[in-house]
Amino acid sequence: MSNWSTEKIVETLASLDQASVNDDFLEISTADYRLLRYPERLLSPTLPAAQVIWSCTSLPLDVVFDEIATSVCEWGLDAVHWWVTSTTRPPETETFLLARGGVVSDAIQILARDLGAGTVLGDMSNDVDVELVYDERSLRAAMDVETQGWGRSPLGDEEMERRLAEVLQDLESATRFQFVVFIEGKPVSTGCCRVEGDVGRLYGAVTLSEFRSRGAYQAILSARLRQIQEVGATIALTRGRPLTSGRILVKSGFTVHGEERCYRLAVS
């Protein structure tokens, strides 16, 4: 990754995240911050509804917070989750959030791994079966894992049809992929990846708690790395929580390029 500085990795990951926001998100973007209201279908205990995903301002932070709080209240919500990253400005933003009663609600690492020629990818356990999501059966298996693993509401028939159409379109364009892992015939883990040029982005991985430490996450990781390498990616970018997926990712050859923290603040 000689051509990939930490700054470039952070900027590229942020750009990929921005491109993934679609029409069912509510978004308020100003010169000072970017506030997202995530759609109900994605919400879970680890994915709250209102999030400030970027802030860089020269205005008084009280003024910016009050403006954000007003928007969040108009959405009928009582809290906002504010991310602090290496690009957050001013530097005292984190101190301000703590003083306003902010509580850390999440912390993630930014990770990257080289996928150039000759890169050796990890093996998968013989106890697991990995499938590419390519039809309704495999999609339903993956969605079952997401529903249980993330604590989300099940997809309705109309939403499932829309999601299947997206899967087929993504496979045809070879830009996005999802895999699902089975242990003893039961779907237990799933994860997604996408490719933009020579960059592969891993995201959305979850393993059912009762099947952790059985090689499921490693299988999902290896399958996605192989897939994005096959379609031309020379670097893999992702985020991981330090005490769970982050540890596995580091053991699998990823390097850490910074940490991002999220603070929950009441707005009502």
Structural features, described:
- By secondary structure, the protein is of the alpha+beta class.
- It folds into two domains: 95 residues; 118 residues, 3-Layer(aba) Sandwich (Aminopeptidase), CATH 3.40.630.30.
- Helix content is 33%, strand content 31%.
- The chain has seven helices and eleven strands.
- An eleven-stranded mixed beta sheet has the order 1-2-3-4-11-5-10-9-8-7-6, with helices on both faces.
- The protein is globular and about 55 Å long.
- The chain starts with 5 loop residues before the first helix and ends with a strand.
Give a summary of the structure in a few sentences:
The protein has helices spanning 6-19, 61-74, 93-99, 136-150, 157-173, 216-230, 245-251, and strands at residues 26-29, 33-37, 50-55, 79-84, 103-114, 129-132, 176-183, 186-196, 199-207, 235-240, 255-266.
